[in-house]
Write a structure and sequence with these properties.
Length: 210
């Protein structure tokens, strides 16, 4: 699968934006999804296409989202690029392998990535793109002209949901991944402070898209 056949690529050494070439811009609602642990199995700093495996119910969920006129937006931290575990070209190759496991009619409309390290130890520009920063979320909301009331966020870490909440996205779904099981207690503590509803699911397709 050649990613440039389907996506326009805009990237720097700190961020990546992949735009689906046939993006219509007609929908005003979207599902924002973390990648590792939600769409593909989280193996911690994935470094090979051979390690790309879809999580349960991904294709079924994406088909339902598309049929309900939701755009699909992927928002992912990928510090492995800055850590020199993988190159940008390898990141693209891994992304292409992920896409090859999906029918082309459910490809994400937008795939956004931050390559920043925690605390910006590599001193890159646009650090607010790294979750829990809001940079990717603000960009996606503006790009798609989405009303935050019509956006759903699904993540497996509290750092996925914090920026969504800051951007006034109210439909928050936490899915427990095998690699980040301790996140549930963090979610519960955060929920006590924020007094917001966090919906826990065990796999995609366990909630109704309206």
């Amino acid at each position: 699968m050649m990613i440039n056949d389907f996506y326009d690529d805009n990237h720097t050494n700190s961020i990546s934006k992949l735009f689906l070439k046939n993006f219509s811009g007609k929908n005003n609602k979207a599902v924002f999804l973390d990648r590792d642990g939600v769409l593909i199995e989280d193996v911690h700093h994935i470094d090979s296409e051979n390690k790309v495996n879809l999580c349960d119910n991904v294709v079924t969920f994406l088909k339902k989202a598309k049929s309900s006129n939701y755009d699909i937006v992927v928002v992912t931290n990928q510090s492995a690029v800055s850590r020199s575990i993988i190159s940008y070209e390898k990141y693209i190759s891994i992304t292409a392998k992920f896409l090859s496991l999906l029918p082309s009619d459910v490809y994400p409309d937008l795939i956004l990535a931050s390559f920043h390290m925690p605390e910006n130890k590599n001193n890159l520009n646009n650090y607010n793109w790294r979750k829990p920063g809001i940079g990717m979320f603000e960009f996606a909301l503006n790009f798609g002209k989405y009303d935050s009331k019509n956006v759903i966020m699904v993540g497996d870490k509290i750092s996925d949901l914090i920026p969504a909440e800051k951007c006034k996205i109210k439909k928050l779904f936490y899915i427990q991944s095998t690699l980040h099981k301790n996140e549930l207690s963090k979610m519960e503590e955060w929920n006590k402070i924020k007094k917001i509803k966090i919906n826990q699911i065990h796999k995609l397709n366990e909630f109704i898209l309206d």
